[in-house]
Write a structure and sequence with these properties.
about 375 residues, binds thymidine-5'-diphosphate, 14 helices, alpha/beta, about 45% helix, binds nicotinamide-adenine-dinucleotide, three-stranded mixed beta sheet
C-alpha cells in the first residue's frame, strides 16, 4: 500500500491521475496538494472527495514547511509532482509565475523530501519522488528528424519549457548528489476530460459550441504527438511500479498531427455529433456552424506564437521495452470520448470559462 502526495492534483492531468489511481489502487492513501490557481478546479476531484482515503490540502508547493508537514503527518512514501504553470502562451506574456512555481516550487519539494526522507534518524526505504515533465524540454524537430529519445540533449525554447527543463535538472541532481530516489517522465501533448479550455483541443470544442472562431497560429503545420490523458496516468503508474530509480522515461502516443489537421478532425466529429443527435441543437442553439455541418468554417488563421516550436515527437522505445508501456486508447476512441465528455459537461466548462469555478475557492480558502 502506498501513501501518495500528488501536487497539482486539481489540474487537468493531476485530477485524471487521481481518478485513475484511486480506482485501481483503492487501498492507497492519496493526499492532493494544490494552490487552486486559475488552472486548478476543486470540482475536478468531486468524485473522490468523500473517499476516506482521500485528503485535499490547499497550499503552494513553494511552501517547504507545509510540504514537510504533509510528508510527516500523512506518512507519505511517494510524491507525484504535477503542479506547474503549464500554458506556453502565458509563459510568453508572463514568465515570472513559471520560474516561481516550476523551478522554485520543484526545488522546495526536493528540499522537503530530502529533509524528511533522507536527513532524519533513519532513511525512509522505498520512497519515490516522481517528477512529471514534458517533451517540450527537448526543443523542436524538423519534419524529418528522428523522434526525441531520453538521450536527446535538452534545448528548451519557451519560458515554459526552459522552466520545466530547469526543474528536471534539479530532480536529477538531487538523485545524483543526495541519493533521493527519483524518476522523471517526459510526456507529449495530452487531451481528454477536465482540460482547461485555453489549450488547443478543448478551446476548439468549446468555441464550436459558442460559434466562435477557431484560431490557428501561423500556417497551422506545427506538429504535436497527442496522447489520451488516462494513458499518461497509466505510463506514470508503470514508472512508479517498475521504473528504475534515477531514470527518465518518455511517454507518447505514436500519434502525430499537424494542428490544422487535428482541428479539422475535431470539426468533422462535432458536425457528425450534431447530425446524429438532434437534441444537441436544442442544448447548444448558439452552435450554428456545427448545426449546419460546417464547424470548419470557424477556422481563422492568426499571428503565430513567438518562438513557436515546429514539431515534437516522442520515441518511447525505452518505456515500451523496459516497462511494457503501450498507449491503450486509440486516437479515434480517445477523441470521441473527449468530445462526448465536453458535450455532456457543459456546467464544468461554462463555469471554467466564466470564472465562477473560482468562487468556491474564495469562499472556502480566502482569509
Ligand atoms: P494544469 O495547468 O491543468 O494544472 C496545474 C495544476 O497545478 C493546477 O491544479 C494548479 O492549481 C496547480 N498549481 C499551479 N501552481 C501551483 C503551486 N505553486 N502550488 C501548488 N499547486 C499549483 O496542468 P496540466 O496540463 O495538468 O499539467 C500537469 C503537469 O504535466 C505539468 O507539470 C506539465 O508540465 C506536465 N505536462 C503537461 C502536458 C499537457 O499536455 N498538458 C504534457 C506533458 C507534461
Ligand atoms: P497548446 O494546447 O497550447 O499546447 P503546447 O503549446 O504545449 O503544445 O497548443 C498546441 C498547439 O496548438 C501548439 O502548436 C500551438 C497551437 N495553438 C493554436 O494554433 N491555436 C490556439 O488557439 C492554441 C491555444 C494553440
Amino acid at each position: 500500500m502506498k501513501k501518495l502526495l500528488v501536487t497539482g492534483g486539481a489540474g487537468f492531468i493531476g485530477a485524471n491521475f487521481v481518478h485513475y489511481w484511486m480506482a485501481k489502487y483503492s487501498a492507497d492513501k492519496v493526499v492532493v496538494l494544490d494552490a487552486l490557481t486559475y488552472a486548478g478546479n476543486i470540482a475536478n476531484l468531486d468524485s473522490v472527495k468523500d473517499d476516506a482515503n482521500f485528503t485535499f490540502a490547499h497550499g503552494n508547493i513553494c511552501d517547504q514547511a507545509l510540504i514537510e508537514t504533509l510528508l510527516v503527518e500523512h506518512g507519505i512514501d511517494t510524491l507525484v509532482h504535477f503542479a506547474a504553470e503549464s500554458h506556453v502562451d502565458r509563459s510568453i506574456t508572463g514568465p515570472d509565475a513559471f520560474i516561481e512555481t516550476n523551478i522554485i516550487g520543484t526545488y522546495s519539494l526536493l528540499k522537503a523530501a530530502k529533509k524528511v526522507w533522507l536527513d532524519g534518524k533513519s532513511i525512509l526505504a522505498g520512497h519515490r519522488f516522481h517528477h512529471v515533465s514534458t517533451d517540450e524540454v527537448y526543443g523542436t524537430l524538423s519534419p524529418t528528424d528522428p523522434a526525441f529519445t531520453e538521450d536527446t540533449a535538452y534545448a528548451p525554447n519557451s519560458p515554459y519549457s526552459a522552466s520545466k527543463a530547469a526543474s528536471d535538472h534539479l530532480v536529477r541532481a538531487y538523485h545524483h548528489t543526495y541519493g533521493l530516489q527519483v524518476t522523471t517522465s517526459n510526456c507529449s501533448n495530452n487531451y481528454g476530460p477536465y482540460h482547461f479550455p485555453e489549450k488547443l483541443t478543448p478551446l476548439v470544442m468549446t468555441n464550436i459550441l459558442h460559434n466562435k472562431s477557431l484560431p490557428i497560429y501561423g500556417d497551422g503545420m506545427q506538429i504535436r504527438d497527442w496522447l489520451y490523458v488516462e494513458d499518461h496516468a497509466y505510463g506514470i503508474d508503470l514508472v512508479l511500479n517498475k521504473g528504475r530509480v534515477g531514470e527518465n522515461y518518455n511517454i507518447g502516443g505514436n500519434n502525430e498531427w499537424a494542428n490544422i489537421n487535428i482541428v479539422n478532425k475535431i470539426c468533422q466529429l462535432m458536425n457528425q455529433a450534431f447530425a446524429d443527435n438532434s437534441g444537441l441543437a436544442q442544448r447548444y442553439p448558439e452552435a450554428l456552424a456545427a448545426i449546419s455541418g460546417k464547424a470548419e468554417s470557424l477556422i481563422t488563421y492568426v499571428k503565430d506564437r513567438a518562438g513557436h516550436d515546429r514539431r515534437y515527437a516522442i520515441d518511447a522505445t525505452k518505456t515500451r521495452d523496459e516497462l511494457g508501456y503501450e498507449p491503450r486508447e486509440s486516437f479515434e476512441t480517445g477523441i470521441a470520448r473527449t468530445i462526448d465528455w465536453y458535450l455532456n459537461n457543459q456546467r464544468w466548462w461554462a463555469s471554467v470559462m466564466d470564472g465562477s469555478y473560482q468562487e468556491c475557492v474564495h469562499q472556502q480558502y480566502d482569509k
